[in-house]
Amino acid sequence: MAVLLVLAAVGAGAEVWARHQTESVIAASLADADADADADSHVTVHGFPVPVLLQLARGQLDDITITAPAAGFDGMRLEDLSVHAEGVSTTSPSTVRNFTTTALLPTEEIRAKVEPVVGQQVELSIRDGLLRIGSELPGLNLALAFEVSVIPDGLRLDPVAVGLGDEAIPVDALPFGIGDWVGPIVVPVALQDGLVLDAVEIEPEGARITVSGRDVVMDESLLGATEG
């Protein structure tokens, strides 16, 4: 009985060590691959129901979660990042069977993407769940309020109101058919192959986006993969 207890303790210790080492390797790889990655990022490799040692032996990690206060992602700086990856291969190139991430795209990042589309510098803010894009004109503070939705190639900004100072006039209530002159703005969001932009929700600090994918080929440095 004592021998069995010792063997069980050794096995449990090996499992804890393997999980800790794997999490450390992934965290270090994230830091090396992304200059914007926050040092407070946290990696969890789940070892239930299949132990991590067995997952490593068969070359695939079943379930990984990653959280980070900030990180770079396909040319964007994201905040409050949460990643869930299932079926992650440990060989190169690394592939992920199922991938989902949610993160906050800050207003400054949105502005950086909107300005090339509209061809000028703009003021960008969020109020009452709407994205407000404005510019300062002599003696006039003019802004357009937009609802934001997902389209296949990025984000669509549909104008719903014109702001004049502290007042807002619905676009369809503008006189002389002026509202017909105001069209939607399409902001392209280019993601790597296999990833799609699923959802967007406007929050006070920016846009909460959800990105997902299946059978995604990841940068090998992201998971510290080795040749296999």
What does this entry look like structurally?
The chain is about 20% helix and about 50% strand. Strands 1-2-3-5-13-12 form a six-stranded antiparallel β-sheet. Strands 6, 7, 8, 9, 10 and 11 form a six-stranded antiparallel β-sheet that branches. The chain contains three helices and 14 strands. It is α+β, with helices and mostly antiparallel strands. A hairpin with a 2-residue loop joins strand 2 and strand 3. The N terminus is likely disordered.
List the helices and strands and how they pair.
Layout: H1 2-33, E1 42-45, H2 52-57, E2 60-73, E3 76-89, E4 91-92, E5 95-106, H3 107-118, E6 123-127, E7 130-137, E8 140-151, E9 154-164, E10 167-170, E11 185-188, E12 195-203, E13 206-217, E14 226-227
Parallel strand pairs: 4-14
Antiparallel strand pairs: 1-2, 2-3, 3-5, 5-13, 6-7, 7-8, 8-9, 9-10, 9-11, 12-13
Keywords, separated by commas or semicolons:
disordered N terminus, elongated, 22% helix, alpha+beta, 14 strands
Q: What is the N-to-C succession of helices and strands? A: HEHEEEEHEEEEEEEEE
Shape: elongated
Beta strand %: over 45%
The count of strands amounts to 14
Number of helices: 3
The rounded distance between the terminal residues' Cα atoms is: 40 Å
Major sheet: arrangement of strands: 1-2-3-5-13-12
Name the helicity range: 10-25%
Arithmetic mean of pLDDT: 79
Task: Give a brief description.
By secondary structure, this protein is of the alpha+beta class. The chain is elongated, with a radius of gyration of 23 Å.
